Amino acid sequence: MLDPLRPPGPRPAVHPGRDSPISTPTTPRSTGRRRFLTYLVAAPALAVGTQLALDGEPAEALPGIPDVLDLGDALILAGLPTSHLLVLEVTAAGRVVLQLPRLEVGQGLTTAMAMLVADELDARLGDVDVPLAPARPELLFNQLTGASNSVRSLYDPVRVAAAAARARLVTAAARRWSLAAGSLRTQDSTVLAPDGRSASYASLAVDAAAVLVPAVPAVTKPVEQQQLVGRATGRIDARDIVTGKAKYAGDLDVPGAVPTVVSRPPTINGTVRSYDATAALAMPGVIGVVRIPSGIAVLAETFDQAMKAKAGLSIGWNPGPLAALSDEDIRRKLRDAQPPFVLPPLLTRHLDAEFDFAFVSHAPMEVLTAVADVRADRAELWFGAQAPIVAQQTIAAELGLPVSAVTLHVVRGGGSFGRRLFFDAGLEAAQISKAAGRPVKLMWTRNDDVRHGRMRPASHHRIRATHALGKVVGYEHRVATVRTDFRHGLGEALTAAAFDLSVAGITLSQAFFLLTERLPYDLGLSSQSLAEVPLEMHTGSWRSVYSGLVRVADEVMMDELARTLGQDPVAFRRSRLSDPAARAVLDRLVQEGGWGRPMPAGHAQGVAFHAEHRSSVAYLVELDATDRTAPRVTKAVAVADVGRAINPRGLEAQLMGALMDGISVTLQAGVHIDNGAVREGSYADFRYARQRHSPPEFAVHLMPPSGPPGGAGELGLPAAAAAVANAWARATGTSPRSFPIDF
Amino acid sequence: MPSYQFVLNGQSVTVDAPADMPLLWVLRDKLGVTGPKYGCGVGVCRACTSHLDGAEIQPCMVPVQDCAGRQVTTIEGLADGDRLHPVQQAWLDNDVAQCGFCQPGQIMTAVALLRRNPEPTDADIDRIENVCRCGTYFRIREAIKQAAAASRS
User: Fold this and answer.
1) Would the CB atoms of A414 and B29 count as touching at under 8 Å?
2) Residues ≥6 apart with Cβ < 8 Å to A165
């Protein structure tokens, strides 16, 4: 770092609160409370870093818990103290390079970030590259892709870095031409003078690196002057994708890395009792067989030979710890874990309901794949990692190497949905490479992915809504789930954001639950609680995490309450929403989706609403359930308010994907546990939606920009899933209680 | 080990491989052609979909011996140099892809469908089995319709 423009601010003081209960702040925190510092990074051409500092202090909240709006705010807070937060370079070749400390898995983040850079810098979008940064341990908690937080956490710093770079490019041009910097304009990666002279950013990059104090203010544009933000833009990697050039971990050509698969136990977390690899080692193309904690790895010249040799292994397995458990037993444990309702059903009318959600596999299209080259004194790995710093640290510890000796290249992922928060394959690849003494390319098979991969935990919900005189006066939601594994750095991040869970007397899962689960409606005295059943199985955050369960059950209940009270489902919701922006979303949905239009017998509309990540969304779906064995969503309309969409096209894609997830998990896609093993093994029986389940009519309508961008990657699923469930209920005259419905 | 010759994306290739080795692994592990993706290995997800003599196949299910002397086309061989195939262009115009992993297979399936049936109905498109875990189905449908309309005009 060269000569900082301003000294970095002090580490923000964060004070845990003392007395007041956890609460939802009524006004969102504005980004204006954060101060930004920019500084030059030592480089032959222009490179600018940004750093955030905190002006205000968080208010008080639950003892040990800072008062933050939601999980996204907590993660932003955790990321604040890291210097070198972002580095933006302008090279002498004219490329504008943002090293993105996040993972691209299809959510369109690289495109959105390129748009922000291009807009603020007045660069051509095609000149901007957004490679994924390798694991950078100095970022501490600021290299975690999750919680729909990437745009929220990067919107300001990326623009600030680009503004700082632009100011220096303008200053360099002003010096070269001996003109007043204020008289110059920028456009299309070029600085323009009033007399017609122009200089490309490429030609200015080296001079701009010597500009310590720019002669024009390095401030971001007012939103009215943004040219690209808010304009529907195609993905920057689309051409690579449609020509087959986009590279995922398994497509990398790392010298010497040989195809590798692992034979895994028949039950979850089963172990090897004994094995004989004689026959497998004699098979064509086989290079080696090594034992790792999770199974027996086979290395071969091709994956085909590795998989055939895997089948030739003779292995005795010890049963896994759940071998005595099946779905019924797990459901019983969940029911038993729930505390009783607080409000007794005395003298008041009430509506009780219980809901069950099955386990759901993440099943990203690209199975877990990792390349590892472990040597005696160093290791190099390549895989798609949402939490690369934790992965790097864990792998270094496993290998007995210092973190600095482990390089983790972050590679685009073929889908994730939360799966790549965990680095199971990366850790195994490191173990195998070390044991075999050579580089390996480890691929999980689809069977491995479904049977030994991670899952959204199964859950059981008990809800009691109390009503009197046509009004809901109380709402209790008791949630029990199999414990969700959050050991991918979340706890450390919350600790860094001044969360003291031991003072608060809650678990990490409960902190997550408290930070994410908010009922958007006024239903009188309301409460919700989480109980967890720890089981030795592989769980993890699945798109929307608790909201994908809790809010779906809530929204089904909202329809049933409306019916009980003789009200229209939309009007009932609207009357319980205090936020005018939320009511506006519902109103727009009614108008755009034609709510209430007559439907043929066996068809119905369904609606649901959800607010999270400082965004809100409502879906209206039309379902044809005339054949109850093959229901079809024929039309879907979504209305979203995300504050400000960076790329409406990317946002629409996320809401479309969330709809397909909602259709899948509500109607047909889940996994069973039979005697400690997953029954399903591929997309043949884990029935994620196909083209024939997708609505031929689909539209997204966005509310006008109203503030800083909210999160969107996980926004859609709860409302989409619930709208499908509500349409099913109305089309069939049933009350769905167990999801997926056809399971 | 037997040797097989076939035409891959317009170029003659010869490869030594066991007769029963699926084409997918011959392409990916022996020839370095990585556009066709592994997603299940059992012909269900169809992420590897490519063409054999112009017709759709799932290379994870086709042994290399069945390809001898024939024309294999993967996503890498679909464009005419820098000029994209109309289906690829329709994919760009509709910004179909999200993670992109299934899209080589989706595109090869759509090209084969439009060859068999230049004006597919919604019901025809519904019969496509390729899995897209990101849920891009609606845009796939729109892109296929656009490509079909473009070929009519």
Assistant:
1) no
2) A46, A48, A88, A90, A96, A121, A208
Looking at domain A336-342+455-739, its CATH architecture is 2-Layer Sandwich (3.30)
| Nearest one of A560, A518, A529 to A462, comparing CA atoms | A529
Q: Determine the 3-state secondary structure of A671 from DSSP.
A: strand
To the nearest 10 degrees (0 to 180), the angle between helices B86-93 and B103-116 is 130
**Burial class of residue A225 (count of CB atoms within 10 Å of its CB; 0-12, 13-18, 19+):** exposed
C-alpha to C-alpha distance for A133 and A114, rounded to whole angstroms:
14
Domain parsing of chain A, residue ranges: 35-243, 249-321+368-443, 336-342+455-739
Residue A16 token pair = 């845990």
Interchain pair B75, A243: CB under 8 A: yes
The pLDDT value given to residue A68: 66
pLDDT digits (tens, 9 = 90+) for A502-531: 888 888 898 899 889 999 999 999 999 999
Look up residue A441 and give its two tokens: 């390319």
DSSP for A680-722 reads --STTTS----GGGS-SEEEEEEPPP-SS----TTTHHHHHHH
Q: Which CATH architecture does the domain made up of A249-321+368-443 adopt?
A: 2-Layer Sandwich (3.30)
User: Which helix (H) or strand (E) is A452 found in, with range?
Assistant: helix A446-452
Q: Do domains A35-243 and A249-321+368-443 have the same CATH topology?
A: yes
Rg from Cα positions in chain A: 27
From chain B, pick out residues whose CB is under 8 angstroms from the CB of A365: 37, 39, 45, 47, 99, 101-102, 131-134
B130 neighbourhood in chain A, CB within 8 Å: 690-691
- Look at B21 and A446 and tell me if their CB atoms are within 8 Å: no
Both tokens of B140, joined, read 């796939």
CA distance to A278, A564, B29, per residue, from A302 (Å): 19, 62, 6
Reported as a single tens digit per residue, the pLDDT across A73-128 is 777 777 665 644 688 999 999 999 999 999 999 999 999 999 999 999 999 999 99
Closest residue to A251, CB basis, from B34, B40, B42: B34
Reported as a single tens digit per residue, the pLDDT across A302-349 is: 999 999 999 999 999 999 999 999 999 999 999 999 888 876 666 678
- The first and second tokens of residue A539, run together, are 């769980």
User: Is it true that domain A35-243 has CATH number 2.30.110.10?
Assistant: no
d(C-alpha A550, C-alpha A567), whole Å? 23
Sheet containing A34-40, strands listed edge to edge, beginning at the edge strand earlier in sequence = A34-40, A46-54, A86-90, A96-98, A128-129
Beta carbons of B24 and B65 less than 8 angstroms apart: no
Task: In whole angstroms, give the CA distance from residue A424 to residue A567.
Answer: 49
Low-confidence ranges of chain A (pLDDT < 70): 1-37, 51-69, 79-85, 343-347
For A179, other C-beta atoms within 10 Å of its C-beta total 15
A367: left (phi over 0), alpha (psi -120 to 50) or beta: beta
Residue pointed to by tokens 């892809």 = B97
- Helix, strand, or coil here: A358? coil
Structural Rg of chain B based on CA atoms: 15
Contact call for A415 and B133, based on CB within 8 A: yes
Enumerate residues 6+ apart whose C-beta is below 8 A from A540: A362, A418, A419, A421, A422, A454, A455, A456, A484, A485, A488
Query: Is the pTM higher than 0.90?
Result: yes
Whole-angstrom Cα distance, residue A505 to residue A375? 44
Per the CB < 8 A criterion, the answer to whether A396 and A403 are in contact is yes
CA–CA gap between residue B55 and residue B111 (Å, rounded): 9
In the sheet that holds A697-702, the strands lie side by side as A603-612, A615-624, A632-641, A697-702
Tokens of A734: 């049933």
Q: Kindly report the CA angle at B118 between B116 and B124, in degrees rounded to 5?
A: 75
- What letter does residue A510 receive in the DSSP assignment? H
Identity at A413, one-letter amino acid code:
G
Instruction: Find the closest chain B residue to A258 by CA distance.
Output: B29
